[in-house]
Design a protein that fits this description.
The chain contains seven helices and 13 strands. It is an alpha+beta fold. Strands 2, 3, 4, 5, 6, 9, 10, 11 and 13 form a nine-stranded antiparallel sheet that branches. Strands 1-12 form a two-stranded parallel sheet.
Length: about 230
């Protein structure tokens, strides 16, 4: 066998091996085979909070809505009010397939698409029991409207920070042969006092999670704190 033909054979074998490895590492089974019914999962009343039908969370444009419908299997938007007159807007979006092209979108993307200016205030983890929730704070402004936002993303069994966190968790699950599901949880308030708004939102989140059974609560916050400390502000 000549040197050239031997070299070509070796290259061919490497390419075949790479193709087979790619097939072997391509996840084929969804981590969550059942859908989430957000309307049933999230109670209409809990603690000191109840539905306020007078305010609707941010409505997206038809173009954005069409794009989001390809990513999410289930969405929920409600506004709650307590006896002190504090209001919190809640939006949850769930997608059963968190492959790269279908991963949940961060609020920064959706708000900017609606014409808002968005300022990322950084990571602000929440602690519920022994579980750390990788939450983030934003401020979205449009004219005189100031909307402090708290949100997190769950990918598989853990919450993650940013696009890099999504990618790392998706890769980890892919090595096990699974396509993870994902969820975006967002609360916001119309308030120029961001400190007060974030305190109210944290109080709301704690009351909501406390009112949900642990088996259902895990669908919102996962079941374990991620050891991945990567923070991605992009």
């Amino acid at each position: 066998m000549s040197y050239v033909s031997g070299k070509n054979l070796l290259i061919g074998l490497v390419m075949v091996a790479a193709a087979l490895a790619s097939i072997a590492l391509t996840p084929s089974k969804k981590l969550a085979e059942t859908k989430i019914n957000l309307e049933q999962l999230v109670p209409l009343e809990f603690g000191d909070w109840q539905i306020d039908p007078t305010i609707t969370p941010l409505e997206v444009s038809p173009e954005v809505k069409a794009q989001l419908s390809k990513i999410y299997n289930e969405t929920l938007s409600r506004t709650y009010v307590n006896k002190q007159g504090e209001r919190v807007m809640l939006s949850i979006a769930y997608g059963g397939d968190q492959s790269k092209s279908l991963q949940v979108h961060k609020p920064e993307t959706c708000y900017v698409a609606q014409g808002f200016n968005v300022k990322n205030l950084g990571d602000s983890p929440l602690l519920f029991g022994n579980l750390q929730i990788k939450a983030r704070h934003l401020i979205a402004t449009l004219g005189n409207r100031s909307e402090p936002i708290t949100y997190w993303m769950r990918v598989g069994n853990t919450t993650v920070y940013g696009g890099l966190g999504q990618a790392i968790n998706r890769y980890k699950m892919g090595l096990k042969g699974y396509i993870p599901d994902g969820l975006l949880f967002r609360v916001s308030s119309l308030d120029s006092d961001k400190g007060q708004a974030f305190r109210t939102q944290e109080k709301f989140i704690d009351a909501l999670l406390s009112a949900i059974e642990p088996s259902s609560r895990s669908k919102l916050i996962g079941t374990e704190s991620s050891s991945d400390l990567v923070s991605d502000a992009k």
